Amino acid sequence: MEISIRQYRDYAHSIGILQGLDIKNENQQFSNLKFSSFNETNANSILQNYAPHILDEIDGLAHALKIEYSKALKLFSGYVIPQVEGMGCSSVVHLNFAIRNYDFSPELYDHCFTMLQPQECFATAGNSIHIVGRLEGVNEESLFIAFHFVNNEVTKEGLMASTIVRIILDVCKDTSSAIEVIKELPISWSYNFSLADRYGEIAVVEKSPFATKIRRNDELRLLTCTNHFQNECLKYLNRDNDFTQSHKRLSNMDLQHLNHMNGEQIFKWFSNPKSPMFYQNYQDYFGTMHSFAYLFNDQVIYISLPHGKPHKIDWSDWIKGYDSRLETLSGEIVEKA
Hints:
Helix content is 28%, strand content 28%. By secondary structure, the chain is an alpha+beta fold. It has a single domain (2-9, 85-330), classed as Penicillin V Acylase, Chain A, CATH 3.60.60.10. Helix 4 (52-65) packs across helix 5 (69-76). The mean pLDDT is 93. One of its GO terms (molecular function) is hydrolase activity.
């Protein structure tokens, strides 16, 4: 398994063109995605209101891929629902660090870690999904966000979680502003969003298409998050048959006493194939695809692939204009016996 490290600094439209040229050979992969109905007017309106530069990026993608803008908007805006299985994800957010495992399948994975510095918005770094979306990430203001799938049985026209993550990273500078924007944005399925910033504010936003609740822990200054809602008003949306073992993963984190560990120690625990947080059920769309960490005091990113070496990116240096020398990351997908 290998993923590309892609780095872009330019205006959003030019970044879209550059990304389009980089993924030209992968265009068929996205064209084959199955989507529900698509409301182009609403997609344009929401992105124009919250992140108009993303529309410029999508237009650049359309130019490079030689496809109609309307098709590019459908493929990359995240205002449609791909017909895919739900995934599992775990995270811990703390005033000093944020760590997250993304568990899914290599069949539906961009295999790309993207660092952007557009002229129109904050610089960001994170694992991409459907090119424009992000699975998790951090921005130049040291705001971290990650999404966690909960349920797709109760739906409404809205954005995919990955587009919401991208919008938050691009336009918000702290947890409080991120919470307000997440409240306003329409979402198609039910998700948790784990948040942390450099000011020490942490939160989990529990969001369904019809309600939003905020979870905090001001006493411990640490929050864990998996793939179910904990607010009583939203628990009815939790899956009855959860093959991702969401409650078990939450218990495993509680038993580990994470408050007595530092960010590097937790990152190593998350990414260790022998850890109870690491899964190898890839055929069931529940295998660990990558581990991501951000340390607020040091302003560094750690990322590793399954059975691969951890890599460190100096995020402070990158936003000053110094490119990372990393071009690829390697790992190995090992299916559970």
